[in-house]
What we know:
Layout: H1 2-20, H2 24-44, H3 57-68, H4 78-81, H5 84-99, H6 101-111, H7 118-128, H8 136-162, H9 168-183, H10 202-217, H11 219-229, H12 239-263, H13 275-287, H14 304-316, H15 329-343, E1 350-351, E2 354-355, H16 358-385, H17 391-402, H18 417-432, H19 434-441
Antiparallel strand pairs: 1-2
Helix pairs in contact: 2-3, 2-5, 2-7, 2-19, 3-5, 3-18, 8-9, 8-10, 9-10, 10-13, 11-12, 12-13, 12-14, 12-15, 14-17, 15-16, 16-17, 16-18, 17-18
Amino acid sequence: MIHSSILHDEQSNRFVHWLKHRSSTQLIALSFASMILIGAFCLALPIAHAEGSWVSPLHALFTATSAVCVTGLAVADTGSDFSRFGQVVLMLLIQVGGFGVITVGMLVAMAGGRRLGFRERLDLQTQINSPDVGGVERLIFKMLLLVLGIELAGALLLYVRLYDPNRPGVSFFEALFHSISAFNNAGFALYSDSLSQFVGDPAVNFVIIMLILLGGLGFIVLLDLLRRVWPRQRIPLSLHTQMALWASGILLIAALLVVLLFEWSNPSTLGTLPWYQRLLAALFQAVTPRTAGFNTLDYSAMRGGTQVFTILLMFIGGNPGSTAGGIKTVTLFVIAGSAWSLSRGHREVIFFGRRLSQELIIRAFVITFFSVMVSGAALTLLTLTEPNLDIFALIFETISAISTAGLSVGITGELSAVGKLIIIGLMYLGRLGTLTIALAFIEKRAAPGIRYPSEDVLIG
Length: 460
């Protein structure tokens, strides 16, 4: 018995020692994987299933991954296949996944009176994309208050619209679930048609749109905007905030125009709606591809041009440091600015009177390159495992998964077991970021002390 206890302590010490020597990116990857497995176990329990329904272990794993990675792709109907317990588990997985597993863990530790060391602060900085290590504790408390405040406000507004006097408790749960799902850009809905039944409802549409936009802006941007309002300060917006706002605005307007142009006369989408509902539905569909996952129109019935542009929007995603996925808007801004500067013969990239470092520009190109390569590899595998499915539908599903967008043209449930595992891997990679994954599994080595001669090659 004593020998067994000593052996157990030795193994525990070994595990703690192993964890201490992991990098921040490795810990983030491990924390998300652990939360997915815990969520899958809970969702596979009979208590999590609705009466008369059964969710297989694979589907439980798929759903848990989609929730923790705030994606929204589903192989089980959230409203009819899961019990209230299962729906609560899903809601908690979405909340923890959106806020960050390490961040939540550190908040619990700090609430218990524990002080964070430098290593833990560094982990938090990596998790939330904070520009500063020193004030990271104060920053996450502000983030927590901001997130809970926005989600509660969204839930109350939705509750006013969804209120049913015969079941007030159920109405509030539905409002809270959709508020958390929308702010975290998760895309899970308790209705089998997502939000299509509310296509002409201004109250539900505008609340969900605002929650999606606020969640997609990013915590750093929200706090930067908030400090200019309360307490009011004459502090200029950071370069990151300015780029994020401009990129978000440009993409939103472009998406709205594309949806209106291609779908205005489409009888399967906007064509049969009154003109004001067409505008509302077009606005919703312009917002949701930014990795939100909700829809009020059937994407499989949309015209090719709209679907192609939706794929581009999903690939770009939201802002860095937000609950959204994709390569991120600022990354696109940096790449576009670099291409423009290079084409005009400028050696430096300038935005709003600020010069971008070469390291940042290279990082933006690397993120995009990795995302393209991973998407291409996954799509190639899917064409082998799903030979009977349309190639365009597979492209749509692939980009939706790696961008954690959650939109689909209706083939998610038709994927084979291997196909679903590929999508699970893509959602995981997409939530963490392809560059984060690369850094997590590539050992850092000291740069060699030799500098080699340069030589030009032909490109383009």
